[in-house]
From TrEMBL, chains A, B:
GO terms for biological process: purine ribonucleoside salvage; xanthine metabolic process; XMP salvage. Its EC number is 2.4.2.22. It is an enzyme of class 2 (transferase). Homodimer. Belongs to the purine/pyrimidine phosphoribosyltransferase family. Xpt subfamily. 5-phospho-alpha-D-ribose 1-diphosphate binds at A128, N129, G130, E131, A132. The gene is xpt. This is Xanthine phosphoribosyltransferase. GO terms for cellular component: cytoplasm. Residues 32-159 form the Phosphoribosyltransferase domain. It is found in: Cytoplasm. Pfam families: Pribosyltran.
Length: 190, 190
């Protein structure tokens, strides 16, 4: 998605070989028009996938997911993220390990919101090692629903998330794929 | 806003005289079309207010704020919420006391994202005692910017948030104002 790549080049800050900061349009400040274009791009890629619901994780996934939901005409669920969670019967809960923060957290979705007939599109802002997307996919499996696909705004393609998700058989669509952040430069795939 | 009131009556769950749960369209699952209508309603009420930025608090404020930002053509900042925060020079930070959770948390916005020329529309999902909105307003003041107004999706008008905000001189626009949740029923003002 050219508009997104342009924005990353112009406003992204390469903090290290591993970390790209996009606080000015995605992760802290949000560019609503760009989010609308991102929503349309996801909708175009998954329009024939029979999507009935979108699941994302708070907070940075919400804006792109809601715009995709608007385009596809389906509800969006944001999984709640917490450090520790008292076990609650009415929630599907999965652990997510963050390599960036070096801590384990839990994400949860109310059982009432997913049913076996759902075909769920998972959306997230970043794909790195795939831990967050895999946790969302396990929640969908817990509900005996199906993963219709995985939509990623920015993929760090030099990490192994994409291959882990494809090994599981999921269709992964990333709107910007970054080959490298070396020497402070963003190099895209394609 | 009639569409919103209808949704509250049909899908809201009154948990007590004080607590209304709207997890099916705002606080956990999100209805994107309703959010678009909410965004348009906020834009209509603040179109002449010279808004340059919107500030909300993660996570439930993000969807309505992004839709309002799309309509008004301005960026949206979501303040980060944390339990404890190591003091960071590059952040404006304010404390918020939650009467529901009986705990104090902090919200923060990167200094880089607000400047004295900004006229900031504050948006939040709920207004109860006004603590969250007041914390956002103090962040705007820290940046020597101005509050253009406050947009609330659902106001619990039987609590004192609205009068606290109006005492400070802010224009408060709530799309649904709840007079009472007594006996399990939602009673609106107007």
């Amino acid at each position: 998605m050219e508009l997104l790549k342009k924005k990353i080049v112009e406003e992204g800050v390469v903090l290290s070989d591993q970390v790209l900061k996009v606080d000015s349009f995605l992760n802290h400040q949000i560019d609503p028009s760009l989010m609308q274009e991102i929503g349309r791009a996801f909708a175009n890629r998954f329009r024939e996938s029979g999507v009935t619901k979108i699941v994302t994780i708070e907070s940075s996934g919400i804006a792109p997911a809601v715009m995709a939901g608007l385009e596809l005409g389906v509800p969006v669920i944001f999984a709640r993220k917490r450090k520790s969670l008292t076990l609650q019967d009415d929630l599907y809960t999965e652990k997510v390990y963050s390599f960036t923060k070096k801590e384990e957290s839990e994400v949860s979705v109310s059982r009432r919101l997913l049913s076996p007939i759902d075909r769920v599109l998972l959306i997230d802002d970043f794909l790195a090692n795939g831990e967050a997307a895999l946790a969302m996919a396990r929640i969908v499996e817990q509900a005996s629903a199906n993963v219709a696909g995985i939509g990623i705004v920015i993929e760090k393609a030099f990490q192994n998330g994409n291959s882990k998700l494809k090994e599981k058989g999921y269709q992964v669509e990333s709107l910007a794929r970054i080959a490298s952040l070396k020497s402070g430069f963003v190099e895209f795939i394609d």
